[in-house]
Amino acid sequence: MRIEIDLDLCQGHGMCEMEAPEVFVAHRDHAEILDKEPDESLREQVLAAVQYCPTQALRIIDDHNE
């Protein structure tokens, strides 16, 4: 699992950090991915972060789909 963020869409709302603080940190105007390839044990939290992102700036890429 790999995570990407579209910084043109991200506005730093912080929902991703609230859902997966081990993976994301929110700044004033954007979020940052701390771990672009998090462990599978964090998948549920990362999925929630992607789902609840108000600007849909996050996406998950599964290696088996490439």
Structure description:
- With 66 residues, the protein is α+β, with helices and mostly antiparallel strands.
- Helix content is 23%, strand content 21%.
- The chain has two helices and four strands; from the N terminus they run E-H-E-E-H-E.
- The protein has helices at residues 15-19, 43-52, and strands at 2-5, 24-26, 31-33, 58-61.
- The strands form two sheets. A two-stranded antiparallel sheet has the order 1-4.
- It is globular and about 30 Å long.
- The N and C termini lie close together (11 Å).
- The mean pLDDT is 94.
Keywords:
two-stranded antiparallel sheet; globular; alpha+beta; 66 residues; 2 helices
Topology, element by element:
Blueprint: E1 2-5, H1 15-19, E2 24-26, E3 31-33, H2 43-52, E4 58-61
Compact summary:
The protein is α+β, with helices and mostly antiparallel strands. Helices cover 23% and strands 21% of the residues. The longest helix is centred in the last third of the chain and has 10 residues, at 43-52.
